Amino acid sequence: MKKLLLTITFAALTIVSVLGQSRALTFQEAEKQGIPFQKLDSLYKSAIHSDATLAVFKTPDQQTELQHAYVKLLQDLGTYLRDNNFKWETQVRGANRIYMQPDGRIDYFLFHFPEGQLTPEKEQQFTQLLNRFIRNYRFAITAPEKFAQCSAVRYSDN
Question: Organism's domain of life (predicted)?
Answer without folding.
Answer: Bacteria
